Amino acid sequence: MDHYGFVSILPPIIAIALAIKTKNVLFSLFVGIFFGSTVLAGWNPIKGFVNLIPNYIYEQVASDSNMQSLTNLLIIGAFVTLIGATGGAAAFANKIGLVGPIFHPIGEKFKVSREKFAYILDATSSPICAMVPIISWGVYIMGLIQTELEALPQVTMTSWDIFVGAVPYQYYSILTLLMVGYLAYTQFDYGPMLKAQRRAEAGIVLREGAVPLRDTRVVELPKGVEPKARMVVVPLIALLTVMFTIFILNGFPKQSLSGIVIRQGIALGFIVGGIIAAVMAYQNKIMTLKQLEDTVFDGMKGMVYLMVLMIFAWSLGSLTKQLGTANYIVELSEGFLNPGFLPVIMFIVGCLMSLPTGSSWGPYAILMPIGIPVAVQMGAASDHMDHFKTQFPYALTVAFVSAILYLIAGFTESTIILVPGIIALFVIVYFLHKASVKKIENLSEKELAS
Description:
It is a single chain. The chain is mostly helical. The protein is 72% helix and 1% strand. It is built from 22 helices and 2 strands. Strands 1-2 form a two-stranded antiparallel sheet. Helix 4 crosses helix 15 and helix 9 (136-150) packs across helix 10 (159-166). The longest helix has 29 residues, at 384-412. The radius of gyration is 24 Å and the shape is globular.
């Protein structure tokens, strides 16, 4: 038998259900892994628990490619924290006028509500990160992909090929970026966001009773030291130069890069960039050698959660392979579920997980070990609740259009459908704006502020 029947799909189902219920992805993954280990141990929970560490956790950490991905996360975490501690990132943001705490006075000058401000920040950060392979998100996703590819020798593509090739199909990210620009230009706000904007137009950028939420670290530089943009620009240039030099020397972009070359290029690029940032910080008397060391390790500590998430994801993937989860799903769906529905199903399940958990990392950790094998066999300082309430209709709008596009893409595998999708999104936003205007046009200033 190449699968355990219905039992084979229970570990991921348990992980998904618990993630939605508890909003804790790590706990949910662990329970799913423990259940699967117990099944493979002949339903003996004690043996399943004993086998869990050596047979799954240790085995996944010991894998060469997995260890390389984990190491890269530590290096990236150290670099990012180091850059932030030098004050270079803040200076760079100030110089080019990026959004953030520095931009708040401008936002208030133009009467932009904190909710709209938070939406702009959110919609112009995560969607971009989701399409960049050389940052922690890309390393994380390619690490999940690589583990699945190693168990699928019939697939000749690399994790880089798949990640980059999937970018044109990142409908939600692409449409979100276009939508935030469209809304900024047209001011076609709707739903709770329109009410927030009308309140801001009356001079009240933050709702009465709102509790601003910001968990940012203020960079304190030594007295007399001014933050300089070059503290971030020079290390980044060095990082990209080293990284792409290694890629080009190995045939990029004409040839497909192997996983180890990709991970090596990323690691060396961030290491060189980090060394240059450290030297500049020391020369400019921003940090002592001891402070540099502490900062590097603080950055590495910040990656622990993500590293554990990856290890648990790999472990769940290993279990689902042994249980034959993909085989069972394919066998079960034969005759009634067209493979073309797979993209939209995975997208909807991911959305249902992301909403309650507030995480994009978790859904990938649970769904990647299922989606890839099945696809191969068949393809800003705003009140947190105000931010959620006002942005949710916008996210839901983009998700609705994206789901339709994924449904079409599952059957056509065409990227051209993105164009009519963009047009449809803009038209929907226009009519939602008009409908919302009618609902709030008679609200008093007091009602808008509440």
